[in-house]
Amino acid sequence: MEFVLRDGKGKDFLFPVNPEEVTISRQKGLDTVNILSSGEFDFPQGDKVKEISFASFFPKTFDESFCRGKEEELPDPQTAMNKLNEFLALKTPLRFIISKTAVNVPVFVASHQSTFRGGEPGDVSFEITLRTWRELKVMKTAAGAGNGKAANATAINKKPRVDMKAKNKTYTVKPGDSLSKIAKLELGNSSEWNRIYQLNKKLIGNNPNAIKPGQKLVLP
Entry's CDD domains (predicted)? Predict the structure, then answer.
């Protein structure tokens, strides 16, 4: 599975490390009307624009155990971060693709946040939010009362609110995983393994190396 942003010229930007999870937010479009003393009423207006968000990191050095693509194609973390800045400034949509899934949609980069963590110099962690793009539609609407004519009106897509609620993140252990590897992938610093161990000590037991595939670990 690969996560790709493709520009209008067909050039792909491959995210080198797959995120652990992807959040796709869908909302129902509602117009709220206040009818005198009767209170507020909601009228459905179709689906709102979807948001796709995920977090990962750009590694300084290639590690075939979790990096996608080829070693010689691994972008410098600073260069990759600047590329996201370029995408953020674009006025034309990109195409977001998750291979081996049905996700293949036009999007804009709505926001991204970069984080530099100690212990793993050179790596850059990031969070990114994409908003699916759809073309503006022209529809016929009734004109003002009395003239009997129709006028063209442009349907404007309304922006949904971003979900700001914090969620507890978990990680499902895979074959070949270790706590240090999980800490590197999820926290950007392999030396943070002990924090994961302390949170999951009852599940893992006295030996931090005894994690088993299928166990769901709580992350700091």
Answer: LysM
DSSP per-residue letters across 43-63: EEEEEPPPEEEEEEEE-SS--
Backbone φ and ψ for 44, nearest 5 degrees, come out as -65, 140
> Three-state DSSP class for 67?
strand
Give the helix ranges, DSSP H, for the chain: 77-89, 179-187, 193-199, 201-204
Partners of 115 in the beta sheet? 125
Domain 1-33+42-143, architecture per CATH = Beta Barrel (2.40)
User: Where in the chain are the domains?
Assistant: 1-33+42-143, 168-220
CATH superfamily for 168-220 is LysM domain (3.10.350.10)
Residue 111 near residue 87 (C-beta atoms within 8 A): no
State the chain's mean pLDDT as an integer: 78
pLDDT at 201: 92
> Residue 184 and residue 169: Cα distance in Å, rounded?
15
